[in-house]
Model the fold of this input.
Amino acid sequence: MEEYSIGIDIGGTKILMGIMNDKADIIHTHRIPTPKSGKDNLLRELKENLKEFLQIADNENMHIKGIGIGVAGVVSAEGMILKGANIPGWRNINLYKEISTITHLPVWIENDVNALTIGEYYVGIKEKEKDIICLSIGTGVGGGVISNHVLLKGSNGEGGELGHITVNFNGPVCKCGNKGCLETYASGNGVAERMVSLLSENNTATNHHLLDSYEINSLQVFKWYHEKLPEAVTVVEEMLSALTSATKSLIRIFNPTTIIFAGGVITNSEWILKEIKYRLYSSNDVPNLEQVQLRTSPFKDNAGLIGAACQPWKKTTN
Ligand SMILES: [Zn+2]
Done:
């Protein structure tokens, strides 16, 4: 009998839900904006949509093996969200209990980028490589490391937070309190915030017009970069240098065979990876660079969803 799982990818801006079969095909998907009005509303929305999905599965005689949830933030081994990232009030929530009580199904809760990494490992490379890294560049920057077939979690589940690698110890203060984290330069939010800050510092009439007339997000900054607007060139050059520097560190520390770049900021702008590769190969200071494959995720916007839905099938990576 064919088996199915339900995957839920909870991010700062959207929640993506899907039913996946054991061949990793996504059968049904549903996308809702992440409620910003507190954890109770988010939980209610999540449960209502989940009930609808279970009804669909029931109507179509699908046997649901379990539910996998990927969520931005620190997740304990017991499925407790200790610290949510990018979602206000999303902390100290026993999500495992909340979901298993209403569904009576096996439930897995995992950090979103760890889940995504597991998806790339099982579905993407089909366990053929033992050392891979995922760097997810979206609203924030997250990471996942599989070393010798095992997902690196650290002593309390906070391992693999690659977005907080310091790339400039005198840099701007990150949300985590540290200075010059990769996330401050390379995330969608970071790029937009750096752009607003540079335009405001340089107090010209043109900059006032840009600040007043445009919604400044990473795509807008990339457009201005290609139009050679000086502030955008500075912000994007910093982003590319930060990503190149962090990639070098990851290669030296973990000696991976593949680094997969996921997340909407980079998968929707493939030129970013080309620029990183150009800088890496030109610098000529990373040993055995040619043995490391650098590529974007083939799953694009579904990478987190596939990773979450993979949880009921995972074996050794936990
Ligand atoms: Zn940080």
User: Anything to note?
Assistant: DSSP finds eleven helices and 13 strands in the chain. The domain at 3-122+302-313 is CATH 3.30.420.40 (Nucleotidyltransferase; domain 5). Residues 164, 174, 176, 178, 181, 183 surround zinc ion (CB under 6 Å).
